[in-house]
Amino acid sequence: MIEKVNPSHPDKVADRIAGAIVDLAYAAEENPKIAVEVLIGHGVCHAIIETTAVLDKAEIARAITRIAGAVFPDICIVSQDKHLSDNQADVFHCGDNGIFKGMPLTEEQKRLSEIARGIYRVYSCDGKYILDGDRLILCQSNAKKQHLREVYPDAEINPLGDWTGGTDVDTGATNRKLGSDMADSVTGGGLHSKDLSKADVSVNIYAFLKAQETGKPVQLVCAIGDDTVDGRPYAEIVEIAKKYIDAVGGFERFAEWGLF
Q1: Strands 2-5 and 127-132
Q2: How many Cβ atoms are within 10 Å of 188's Cβ, its own excluded?
Q3: Which secondary-structure segment (H or E) carries 176?
Q4: Secondary element (H or E) of residue 34
Q5: How many other C-beta atoms are found inside a 10 Å radius of the C-beta of residue 143?
Q6: What does the pLDDT profile of the chain (260 residues) look like in tens digits?
Q7: Beta-bridge mates of residue 136
Q8: Is the pTM of this model over 0.70?
Q9: What does R_g of the chain's alpha carbons equal in angstroms?
Q10: How far is Cα of residue 131 from the mean position of the Cα atoms in its chain?
Q11: Hey, how many other C-beta atoms are within 10 angstroms of the C-beta on 36?
């Protein structure tokens, strides 16, 4: 059983905006420290940003409107806590306490990811999908129901009828769809909206990748300040996660679908 939401779901819009802001921080500094929270809905986007990087509010506003359309950008930027920044001054240390789990993807999870991406290529607006064994539920806004019926004849399609969706109908918040992004790997901690010194990002990515490579569950724990995780220097964990983020095209692109 798995649910996926597409990149135009309000929660994913919030994740994508946060990712775009993290991308801006990495463009401004080599190893910025940043944490972003985004709440969007009904014509307003609130973005609270704690960072070491010098960011341009106008550039952030342009990113918000590029992703979300005509919304009012309410942007608050503050310096990240000095103690947190100093912790990473000499070498990367684990940026938070956390328990992390990586789980191999099931065929069901892979299949729903393919279905969600295929529908989104045709209907690039708010949608969410569930696969539970043979039961496929497709909730896709602004869609031609008959067209979806032709492609997925056995699916339950928009059970309550047509709908419009988007941030004019619903609110979106960062890291509210972690199950969609991480499948059975989800534990505590947000996957999006932070730099790679934060274990929520780097160790989650590392554990997931290791589980796919080995085909076995991975369970890790770390404390803030740890310089090794899973027997590796934390800097190495960060580098593995950075290569993954770079490969998918940056933090904004990563936020579109998450890890699968």
Answers
A1: antiparallel
A2: 12
A3: none
A4: strand 34-41
A5: 20
A6: 999 999 999 999 999 999 999 999 999 999 999 999 999 999 999 999 999 999 999 999 999 999 999 999 999 999 988 776 666 666 777 878 899 999 999 999 999 999 999 999 999 999 999 999 999 999 999 998 999 999 999 999 999 999 999 999 999 999 999 999 999 999 988 999 999 999 999 999 999 999 999 999 999 999 988 999 999 999 999 999 999 999 999 999 999 999 99
A7: 131
A8: yes
A9: 19
A10: 20
A11: 27
d(CA 227, CA 24) in angstroms, rounded, equals 27
Q: For residue 74, which of 66, 64, 85, 82 has the smallest C-alpha distance?
A: 64
In 3D space, the residue among 133, 137, 178, 140 whose CA is nearest the CA of residue 155 turns out to be: 137
Compute the distance between CA of residue 108 and CA of residue 131 in angstroms, rounded to an integer: 7
Structure tokens belonging to residue 162: 């047509």
